């Protein structure tokens, strides 16, 4: 039986379909996973998620499986090594932002106990369930993503504009933006958090 998915999912891309079916919109409370999505969303800026998704395993290997402690300690030699890695997106600003954000991430953990506690406090620890009928209704940013973006920037994070933050919120299940006819909308709405 064919499952009805959100319109943005390419039906000829099995990796993308699996990402939509198994990950996108599922609430994430694990700090390392939240950090991974924050970094990947930053690398996506100006590109398609498909590009990043197909390089995700390469990113994981290149960036020490998104271990914030290790990334925070990257030096110029490591940054140059990443700049030579054709298997990832080689953008110096984004790589430097990744190192910066690892440091800010660790500071956030120290201050709030965990990054999860920090980020999920904006939604009282529960996903916001939207009921969009069409892709045209889904916003690229919201007042809440504006607020989170502003706070992240004040804390020193880079590549955390409101659109990137909203994409992070969607990916990590802070909002359920699956379209109402998508099989995942109902499944995720029924979960108890």
Describe the overall structure.
The structure is a single chain. With 193 residues, this protein is mainly alpha-helical. It has one domain: Endonuclease III, domain 1, CATH 1.10.340. The chain is built from ten helices and two strands; from the N terminus they run αααααααβααβα. It has a two-stranded parallel ribbon. α2 packs across α9. The two termini are 29 Å apart. The model has no long low-confidence stretch (mean pLDDT 95).
Please give the share of residues in helix.
55-70%
C-alpha end-to-end distance: 29 Å
CATH architecture: Orthogonal Bundle
Count of alpha and pi helical runs: 10
The CATH topology turns out to be Endonuclease III, domain 1
* CATH C-level label: Mainly Alpha
H/E topology pattern: HHHHHHHEHHEH
SSE order and pairing:
Elements lengths: L13 H9 L8 H14 L4 H14 L5 H5 L3 H8 L8 H21 L2 H6 L7 E2 L13 H12 L7 H10 L3 E2 L6 H8 L3
Parallel strand pairs: 1-2
Helix pairs in contact: 2-3, 2-6, 2-9, 8-9
Would you kindly provide a brief summary of this structure?
This protein is mainly alpha-helical.
Which key phrases capture this entry?
193 residues, mainly alpha, Endonuclease III, domain 1, two-stranded parallel ribbon
């Amino acid at each position: 039986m064919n499952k009805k998915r959100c319109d943005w999912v390419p039906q000829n891309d099995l990796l993308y379909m699996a990402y939509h079916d198994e990950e996108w919109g599922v609430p994430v409370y694990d700090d390392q996973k939240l950090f991974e999505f924050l970094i990947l969303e930053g690398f996506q800026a100006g590109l398609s998620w498909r590009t990043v998704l197909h390089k995700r395993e390469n990113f994981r290997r290149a960036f020490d499986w998104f271990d914030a402690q290790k990334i925070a300690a990257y030096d110029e030699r490591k940054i140059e090594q990443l700049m030579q890695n054709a298997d990832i997106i080689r953008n110096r600003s984004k790589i430097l932002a990744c190192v910066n954000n690892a440091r800010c991430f660790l500071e956030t953990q120290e201050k709030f106990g965990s990054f999860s506690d920090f980020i999920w406090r904006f939604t009282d620890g529960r996903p916001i369930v939207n009921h969009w009928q069409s892709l045209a209704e889904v916003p690229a940013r919201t007042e809440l993503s504006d607020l989170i973006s502003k706070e992240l920037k004040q804390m020193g994070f880079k590549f955390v504009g409101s659109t990137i933050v909203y994409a992070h919120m969607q990916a990590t299940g802070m909002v359920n933006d699956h379209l109402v006819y998508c099989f995942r909308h109902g499944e995720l709405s029924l979960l108890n958090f």
